Amino acid sequence: MNDIFDNAYKALEFAQKEGADEVEIYCIKGRSISIDIHRDVIDLAKESLISGIGIRAIVKGAVGFSSTNDVLRIKEASELAVKSARVRGSDPEWSGLPVKKKLPKVKGIFDKKIADIQIESCIDFTTELINGAKSIRNIVPTSGHFACGNSTKLILNSNGVETQEEDTIVQASIDAITRDLPLSTASEFDMSRKLDMDFYKIGERASSLALRSQNGISTQTRDCTVLLEPMAIADLLENTIVTSVNADNIQKGRSS
């Protein structure tokens, strides 16, 4: 384990000494690569390292939180979490942190190819994305994005829970527009835990949809059957159902 993980146990001890009844520690370390597309060229490519720790302290049913990515400030963050809990009112819904038990392992969320990937390979994949969008005549890409990363997460609490998990993710998206009037735009994306995506096809699908969307017709307000593609369904779910099933929104009475 690196320094931030080693200090997770110290953070737990610091918060308990400060007077917390219960403590939960969340740690993450990892790496990410992000590439932006402007029109049909790569605009920016960057690689980042991720490291941080979050401390949740409970005092008489009140929850306080603090975080830091500086190992030298972990003691301060632990104390701030406890102080934050002390100035907040008790949560009547609070039933305590999870207790120690055997936890199931989630399979299929880590791909060593993504964990070991170099930024040069990511640039090649992004180029495939652009070329796919340019493969259909009279359609041009306007913007896009490629991102991938791997992370290791550690969760432990004062009830003896301790679990660690490693995962990876890769995602790509691109927008395209027709050259000719009437103008029509479209976008396409994909996301996976494994490096099994066809980036050329993603770009090609975006341009194909832009072409097929030209010369649309209007309709009247009426009750009818509507066939929605995955992209439309994703937008609907994100802006309606997802917020309604958020646990924090439900507890605060903001869920519809």
TrEMBL record:
It comes from the Archaea. One of its GO terms (cellular component) is cytosol. Residues 113-213 form the Metalloprotease TldD/E central domain. SUPFAM superfamilies: Putative modulator of DNA gyrase, PmbA/TldD. GO terms for molecular function: metallopeptidase activity. GO terms for biological process: proteolysis. Residues 23-85 form the Metalloprotease TldD/E N-terminal domain. This is PmbA protein. It comes from Candidatus Methanoperedens nitratireducens. The lineage of its organism: Archaea, Methanobacteriati, Methanobacteriota, Stenosarchaea group, Methanomicrobia.
